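Lay summary. Proteins are chains of building blocks that fold into shapes, and those shapes determine what they do. In this project we predict the shape from the chain. Here is one chain we studied, written as its sequence of building blocks.
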Amino acid sequence: MVFRAVIDPNDPTLYKSGFHGKGGIKDGLRECDYKFCKTNPDWIEASRKHGLSFSSTTEHAVFTIEFLSGFQKKGTKVECAYWIFEDS
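And here is the predicted shape, written in a compact code that computers can read:
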């Protein structure tokens, strides 16, 4: 099982328009999370230096949610999404 902090109004894997740290947003994807192909920006290339951030333990997930909550406007909802792997 892995966990991911989700800051309102974003979804677990996609971002809404607006400011989200470094990089811009293209079709809900944050540019620093994915390596867009230089010759065709509609394609994503495999990259060991890019990718969404996940927590592998509940302790790390809680820490991350509390940490990220400190940067948000008062009243912004920060939740936790999780994925259960079939082999778990």
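What the prediction tells us: The radius of gyration is 14 Å.
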